């Protein structure tokens, strides 16, 4: 999954399941 800085992405994994989060930096969660 490729995301840009500041993009709103839906976190599917972890405790943030189903929660929209704003990606400020390249997060390891997106891998």
Briefly, what is this?
The chain is mainly beta and 31 residues long. The protein is built from no helices and 2 strands. The protein has strands at residues 8-11, 19-22.
Describe this structure as you would to a colleague.
The chain has one domain (1-31). It is 0% helix and 26% strand. The protein is built from no helices and 2 strands. Strands 1-2 form a two-stranded antiparallel sheet. A hairpin with a 7-residue loop joins strand 1 (8-11) and strand 2 (19-22). The mean pLDDT is 57.
| β-strand amount | 25-35%
Order of helices and strands: EE
- Rg: 8 Å
What is the approximate shape?
A: globular
Number of domain units = 1
How would you write the strand order of the largest sheet?
1-2
Q: Please give the number of β-strands.
A: 2
Can you tell me the residue ranges where pLDDT is under 50 for at least 5 consecutive residues?
none
Q: Average the pLDDT over all residues and give the rounded result.
A: 57
Range of helix content: under 10%
What about the largest sheet?
2 strands, antiparallel
Cα end-to-end separation: 7 Å
Number of DSSP helical runs: 0
Structural class: mainly beta
Keywords: Ribonucleoprotein, Ribosomal protein
Domain KOW: 2-29
GO molecular function, one term: structural constituent of ribosome
Protein name: 50S ribosomal protein L24
What order do the helices and strands come in, and which of them pair?
Blueprint: E1 8-11, E2 19-22
Antiparallel strand pairs: 1-2
Quick tags:
31 residues; mainly beta; 50S ribosomal protein L24; ribonucleoprotein; structural constituent of ribosome
């Amino acid at each position: 999954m490729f995301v840009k800085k500041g993009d709103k992405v839906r976190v599917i994994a972890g405790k943030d399941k189903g929660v929209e989060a704003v990606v400020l930096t390249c997060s390891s969660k997106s891998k």
